[in-house]
Specification:
mainly alpha; 18 helices; MFS_dom; transmembrane; MFS; MFS_trans_sf; membrane
Length: about 450
């Protein structure tokens, strides 16, 4: 057994060898991204609502940001997927990793109210193009190297390395003085595009064969016609595939619930239990350690046995438990317990990427991943329209009844629906497998009986 696990780990490492120059800069990126999470709540609250534990203005601004990002990403993410397939992954990665330099440079310089507003404007732009797209661009890049049957494990290793980066980011944020965090973050963000430009090799063969004077740079009308045609083709690809339709449905409701929870969770915990930077960092460090185990060890071991859909179902169940425990939190230690389930639900992403990748041709990886990301963006647009005002209302003294976590429990209900739907599909699949096994066994017994009868007659 140990030998099998060692062979599996060794195989996973071999799958990642061609991806080193992709994962190194993205590790820097995710370390920097995660370093900002725990400190941003305190910075924004101090600037917008000084000397207050609850900041409705910050909750509304975050909800507004998520709504704007969701509206624009509905169009931008499928377009990025098309451009990644047509013109290469490297160019898109360079663009997306560069954008975070500017908003955090503002906070490194000044954290007053005006600079926080300016940060939100620039951060919204970087969110539109970078947040969520970098990971599936990396997955599309990896799919160019990895064989289909190994993709689930390879994608899990990739997201596991991202989790390791998150852990390093949280540890750094926990012990680094707050006044130095944004300076370090800006330096790491600036290093990413430099490394990609110098060392990353383009993998998309179609992009390398294109002429530099292609229609992308010529007639604007022709550009729009080409993009519209490509968008239409992508929609047809998804609608004609039962698997892609199903994963789009699952991704929509999962993101509808989880993005709503993530958007308000830290502000909710700050109001409910007085959490600060240190508690956020401790929770996230716990989560990152668990995510490393889930993505690097658990998924490569259980995926070949149970399949992508079963792994996805397990992740969805953990996400429901995470949301309900936080929404019903009755003591300050309960969010730490919920963090254990967050360590498991992270497997939703790599299993989803694997399902999409296996249902799509190699030439259309970016289109399919971008389309599903666009569906998730619709959910990210809809979620804060209800959950941000609800959270602000139930955290305020004028709440209709005392239930501060009402909005988070409501978001969990969205994920319950998709989990039940997926369970029904898995049950039907299991019944089909059992029926085929029974039918095969019956045919085998019939054949053995006929063979025995002929032998006795002879």
């Amino acid at each position: 057994m140990l030998a099998m696990e060692g062979a599996s780990s060794s195989s996973g490492f071999r799958q990642l060898r061609p991806l080193v120059h992709l994962l190194v800069p993205l590790s820097f990126y995710w370390i920097a991204e995660e370093m900002t999470v725990s400190v941003l709540v305190d910075v924004v609250t101090s600037a917008l609502c000084p000397e207050q534990s609850t900041c409705s203005e910050a909750i509304y601004i975050n909800g507004l940001q998520q709504t704007v990002v969701g509206i624009v990403k509905m169009v931008i993410l499928p377009l990025l997927g098309q451009l990644a397939d047509d013109y290469g992954r490297k160019s898109l990665l360079l663009l997306t990793v560069s954008l975070n330099i500017f908003p955090f440079a503002l906070l490194a310089y000044n954290q007053s109210r005006g600079f926080v507003y300016a940060y939100y404007v620039l951060r919204t732009i970087s969110y539109i193009l970078g947040h969520g797209s970098i990971q599936w661009l990396a997955v599309a890049f990896a799919a160019d190297f990895v064989k289909e049957e190994k993709r689930a494990a390879a994608f899990s290793w990739v997201t596991g390395i991202f989790s390791a980066s998150h852990l390093l980011g949280n540890v750094t944020a926990r012990f680094l003085p707050a006044k130095y965090i944004f300076l370090v973050v800006v330096a790491l963000f600036a290093l990413c595009p430099v490394y990609i430009q110098l060392f990353l090799v383009e993998t998309n063969r179609r992009s390398t064969r294109r002429d530099h004077n292609s229609t992308f740079w010529n007639n604007p009308i022709k550009i729009l016609q080409t993009r519209y045609g490509s968008m239409k083709d992508t929609t047809i690809i998804v609608l004609n595939s039962r698997t892609l339709r199903g994963i789009s449905f699952v991704s929509f409701f999962y993101e509808l619930g989880m993005s709503g929870i993530s958007n308000v969770l830290f502000y909710y915990l700050k109001s409910l239990f007085g959490y600060s930077k240190n508690q956020y960092s401790e929770i996230m460090m716990m989560v990152n350690v668990g995510q490393l185990f889930s993505q690097i060890l658990m998924v490569p071991l259980i995926n070949p046995i149970f399949g992508d859909k079963a792994v996805l179902s397990l992740g969805l169940l953990a996400s429901v438990a995470f949301g309900l425990l936080n929404g019903l939190a009755w003591a300050s230690w309960v969010p730490f317990l919920a963090a254990a389930f967050k360590s498991i639900y992270v497997i939703v992403k790599p299993s989803g990427y694997a399902i999409i990748s296996k249902a799509t041709s190699l030439e259309d990886q970016g289109k399919a991943q971008g389309f599903v990301a666009g569906v998730e963006a619709i959910a990210q647009f809809l979620s804060p329209l209800a959950l941000s005002p609800l959270t602000s209302l139930f955290l305020s003294p004028s709440a209709p009844f005392h239930f501060k976590g009402f909005s988070i429990v409501l978001a969990s209900v969205c994920m319950v629906n998709v989990y039940i739907t997926l369970l029904v599909h898995l049950f039907i699949l299991l019944c089909s497998i059992i029926w085929n096994l029974v039918l095969s066994g019956y045919c085998l017994l019939q054949g053995l009986h006929a063979s025995t009868k002929r032998t006795l007659e002879a």
